[in-house]
């Protein structure tokens, strides 16, 4: 095993830790790790990310459930429209994106570059939501109508399908704001959605891609160890401080990805 592989597996452990601590963000680390450190094609990387994050989140859901931090009813309500959108986008949308998206003079924007830049833009938005201060004036929010949840699930599901993310970093704030769920329970509930979205999205990839199962399963196993540790550590670490620090980290990563894809 060379140094690159060792760093890759260390990254897998960190992916699990992040999922266990904040309920999202695993894919934000997994995709750049697979693309830039281990050299995978972005389409393959986003597929692997769905399996890794989905499987790890399933373990995390059980860990959070034992602590009473999962709202299954709300989680499944968000999951239904989302997994439809994720599956359809991975099965039909992503494979049919043209290899050449744009060309002007000497500059060309390929499918691989486009996926990574879109991924970075979503990272930027996620980082801002994590960094900004939450306003709480004591107002109790009412749960919204289900048709709005359905539409939001379709939109987030399509986005996460394209970028190969579970969507936890999008669902946690959605559950807090729209479903009026406390932050800690929103983290646990988001893991249900991430699990369902990711694994169903990956089923769409299995039908169109060749999978390196030995590598994928070993990488996933290490991520599962990480998420078990992360859930155990979450009670000792301030959620607000962790969220803001992680937001700054993914902001830096997003800027790096945009720079790398624009100049290389």
From TrEMBL:
Subcellular location per UniProt equals: Cell membrane; Membrane
Q: Which InterPro entries match?
A: TM_pro_TauE-like, TSUP/Inactive_protease-like
Q: Which UniProt keywords apply?
A: Cell membrane, Membrane, Transmembrane, Transmembrane helix
Specify whether Hydrolase is a keyword of the entry.
no
UniProt topology in membrane: Multi-pass membrane protein
Give me the segments passing through the membrane. 7-37, 43-62, 74-93, 113-131, 151-174, 186-206, 213-236, 242-259
Q: Which Pfam families match?
A: TauE (PF01925)
> Which family does the entry's similarity section mention?
Belongs to the 4-toluene sulfonate uptake permease (TSUP) (TC 2.A.102) family.
Name used for this protein in its record:
Probable membrane transporter protein
Q: Which organism is it from?
A: Flavivirga aquimarina
Q: What is the lineage of its organism?
A: Bacteria, Pseudomonadati, Bacteroidota, Flavobacteriia, Flavobacteriales
């Amino acid at each position: 095993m060379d140094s690159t592989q060792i760093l890759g597996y260390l990254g897998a452990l960190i992916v699990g830790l992040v999922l266990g601590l904040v309920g999202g963000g695993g894919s934000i680390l997994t995709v750049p790790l697979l693309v830039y450190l281990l050299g995978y094609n972005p389409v393959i990387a986003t597929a692997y990310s769905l399996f890794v994050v989905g499987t790890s989140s399933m373990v995390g859901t059980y860990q959070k459930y034992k602590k009473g931090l999962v709202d299954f009813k709300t989680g499944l309500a968000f999951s239904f429209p989302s997994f439809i959108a994720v599956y359809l986008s991975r099965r039909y949308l992503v494979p049919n994106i043209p290899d050449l998206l744009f060309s002007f003079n000497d500059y060309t924007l390929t499918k691989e570059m486009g996926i990574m830049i879109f991924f970075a833009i979503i990272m930027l938005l996620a980082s801002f939501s994590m960094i900004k201060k939450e306003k709480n004036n004591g107002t109790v929010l009412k749960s919204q109508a289900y048709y709005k949840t359905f539409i939001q699930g379709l939109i987030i599901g399509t986005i996460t399908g394209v970028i190969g993310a579970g969507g936890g970093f999008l669902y946690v704030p959605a559950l807090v704001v729209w479903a009026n769920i406390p932050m800690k329970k929103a983290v646990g509930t988001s893991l249900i959605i991430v699990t369902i979205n990711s694994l169903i999205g990956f089923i769409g990839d299995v039908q169109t891609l060749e999978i390196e199962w030995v590598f994928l399963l070993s990488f996933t196993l290490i991520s599962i160890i990480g998420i078990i540790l992360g859930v155990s550590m979450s009670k000792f670490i301030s959620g607000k401080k962790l969220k803001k620090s992680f937001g700054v980290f993914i902001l830096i990563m997003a800027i790096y990805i945009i720079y790398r894809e624009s100049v290389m």
